[in-house]
Amino acid sequence: MRQKTRTAPRTAQGFGRTSGSTNAPKISLCAIVKNEVDRIAASLASVAGFVDEIILVDTGSTDTTIDRAQQLGAKVFEFAWCDDFAAARNFSIQQAKGDWILVLDADEIFDQSIEPVLTKLIQQPNCLAINLTRLEVGAQQSPYSLVSRLFRRHQDISFTGYYHESIDRSAIAIQQQQPQWQVVTVPTVAIHHYGYQASEIAAKNKQAFAKRLMLKHLEEYPHDIYMHSKLGALEVEHGELQSGLDLLHAGLKLTKLDRSNSDRLTEFELYYHLAIGSSHMHDHQAAQTYYQKALMLDVPDIVKLPAYNNLGSILLDRGDITNSIAIYQKVIEIAPTFAKAHYNLGIALKVSGNLSQAAIEYNQAIYLAPDYAEAYQNLGVVLVHLGQTQQSIEAFQQSIELHERQQNHTAAQAIRAGLQSLGLVEVSEIDSN
């Protein structure tokens, strides 16, 4: 696979840690990239002071990614792409010299505020790997995920999977042979991932690429529960509901047949995506049941957050306002800065008749997400009912401006029409703002 190696001396900015014991474990960043010249600098800069070397494996860039990475002090290796992310990952970690491996992609930023926690953990003698919490920037359904991206450089740790590759299988195998090894989960966000933004997915045609590699994987490993979950979720997300649900049900069946080949997190994802698929099929009772089963599993609350959030919406739609409010409050307890949870709580409170508290929640959602057009819109509605006419008009006008900026012209026009019908604002006044 290896074609040639390119390395460059480190630049003045360097990557070695600037504090702590000289006997502290050394950390290697391992990344695989292709045509990422516009983003590589930000990603590499985010680990400065935390890692001791950067291993960058290029899988066929035609831009200046390699030159830019070398300028930033990376050790660059070239790898002939073979439709196998695990093979590329394994090649990258084979080049590393550190005691620990941190894995990032170019569309990910390491959150340096997590450094003190991770520095302590990697010095624990029995810590084998660390599950890091990743913020999925722009994701519509699941804003957080867990990824096994920080682990010891161990001869038996390797990646598997043509797509959605991970070290999980090898880590489990090591633990089965040597139970003293521990895999630790850190619930605080360590990675910000920008690859799930709609513009990114469209630009790189990720859906077709991902589906092809996941089908390839299932052809070779037909009993892989994790890949059933991932491909089923992808199909549901893109409207292939029946095939997606079939894959998810098959994965769930496999978990019951072979507990040794499943884990609670994958089981959670199976139930969670079955719930989403059932909602799309308008089977809300089934969706509610699947969400409740998912929430009963022993997985971190930060992962459960989208299931709680979606269950709250189902309960609200079915008229169970009290439990819906309780669910949204639970979401906020888990993630106080999750703007959508405050927005959803505002909706539930409005339905319950508690308009003043609803306005508080909408304002909190706006504080956390200043471009939240729907929050401004709903704030305008409750302010009208509270008799705060001028503040209501201002909220509606801000919502119109944001909808227009976000290309939601139909929504903007509907608000204009609503304001006119209420006699609150003349057409000229709306357009002038």
Description:
This protein has helices at 40-45, 65-71, 85-94, 115-121, 168-177, 198-204, 206-220, 225-237, 241-257, 264-280, 284-295, 301-317, 321-334, 339-352, 355-368, 373-385, 389-405, 409-421, 427-432, and strands at residues 2-7, 27-33, 53-58, 75-79, 100-103, 108-110, 127-136, 144-152, 182-193. It is of the alpha/beta class and 433 residues long. Among the domains are: 2-199, Spore Coat Polysaccharide Biosynthesis Protein SpsA, Chain A (Alpha-Beta Complex), CATH 3.90.550; 205-299, Alpha Horseshoe (Serine Threonine Protein Phosphatase 5, Tetratricopeptide repeat). Strands 1-4-3-2-5-8-7-9-6 form a nine-stranded mixed beta sheet, sandwiched between helices. The N and C termini lie far apart (60 Å). 42% of the residues are buried. The model is unreliable at 7-13 and 427-433 (pLDDT under 50).
Major sheet description: 9 strands, mixed
The number of distinct helices, counting runs of at least 4 residues, comes to 19
Distance between the termini: 60 Å
Percentage of residues in helical conformation: 40-55%
Order of helices and strands: EEHEHEHEEHEEHEHHHHHHHHHHHHHH
Overall CATH class of the domain at 2-199: Alpha Beta
Mean pLDDT: 89
